[in-house]
Amino acid sequence: MTASGRPPLMPQVVGHRGAAAVAPENTLAGFRAAAECGARWIEVDVALTADGVPVLLHDETLDRTSTGKGSIAAMRAADAARLDAGSWFSPRFAGEPLPTLEAALAEAVRLDLGLNLEIKPTPGRARETARVTCAMVRRLWPARMARPVLSSFQIDALEEALSVAAELPRGLLLEQDWPGDAASWAKEARRLGCASIHPQHRMVDAAAARTVTGDGFALAVYTVNDGARARELVALGVDTVITDKPDAILAALAA
Ligand code: G3P
Ligand code: MG
Fold first, then answer.
1. How does pLDDT run across 3-30, given as a tens digit for each residue?
2. 16 catalytically annotated
3. Which domains does the chain have, with CATH numbers?
């Protein structure tokens, strides 16, 4: 149980983009690294190829984290499947594929890892990305495991997820340019039927944590790689810390 008596939506520590400090982000090697770090859940980013196949990728373009160039929205899945998404991080990960969501779900199930799927659409594809992601989770995710949490900064992606798969828990992601206070976060999360609110960690103070958790939402913050800061946030009432370094943060919270 959480401090407020709710059953936890996600564990206290969730690996960010897998375990982004340890292995290349949004790759299956990252899933395995996160599991080896002791993480029980991870967050990854989902976008669509030109032909509508969901894959794991953070940026709109392929350039930073793969051998590909240009927007993922302009590349067909068959071509994306030939990219190397590991060697930019370290030669140890050369040949690591850019995973499809289908492969990602299978690997998470194999490792018994829970998933926070961030819907990270390229411009103009928010609803489509949400629809495709929901359909695939419904088709492939086993009932015996906790349902993935679908989060997004894109309000229309969350609206679409609510309308096509209301049973999947949703999380409202917030950046520091969000115009209102914590009461306004909760208002928007309520309208979208969200189970959780995911602000950038510097947005959270004791009053904000009280408002969010008092209104019955789980509170997950990103991205926290410092152990002392993670302890501070948990003391404020944060339920989940999303981190590139799940091993370090688990150790800090256990100390
Ligand atoms: O979901 C938390 C976090 O991943 C949101 O920011 O840019 O790392 O996807 P970003
Ligand atoms: Mg993300």
1. 666 789 999 999 999 999 999 999 999 9
2. yes
3. 13-254 (3.20.20.190)
pTM greater than 0.85: yes
pLDDT tens-place string over residues 57-83: 999 999 999 999 999 999 999 999 999
- Binding site membership of 217 for ligand 1 (Cβ less than 6 Å): no
Mutate to test the pocket of ligand 1, among 60, 64, 118 (most ligand atoms within 8 A of CB): 118
Q: Which of 12, 16, 32, 174 is catalytic?
A: 16
Choose, from 4, 50, 58, 188, the residue flagged as catalytic.
Answer: 58
Is residue 198 annotated as part of the catalytic site, yes or no? no
3-class SS letters over the chain: CCCCCCCCCCCCEEEECCCCCCCCCCCHHHHHHHHHHCCCEEEEEEEECCCCCEEECCCCECCCCCCCCCEHHHCCHHHHCCCECCCCCCHHHCCCECCEHHHHHHHHHHHCCEEEEEECCCCCCHHHHHHHHHHHHHHHCCCCCCCCEEEECCHHHHHHHHHHCCCCCEEEEECCCCCCCHHHHHHHHHHCCCCEEEEEHHHCCHHHHHHHHHCCCEEEEECCCCHHHHHHHHHHCCCEEEECCHHHHHHHHHC
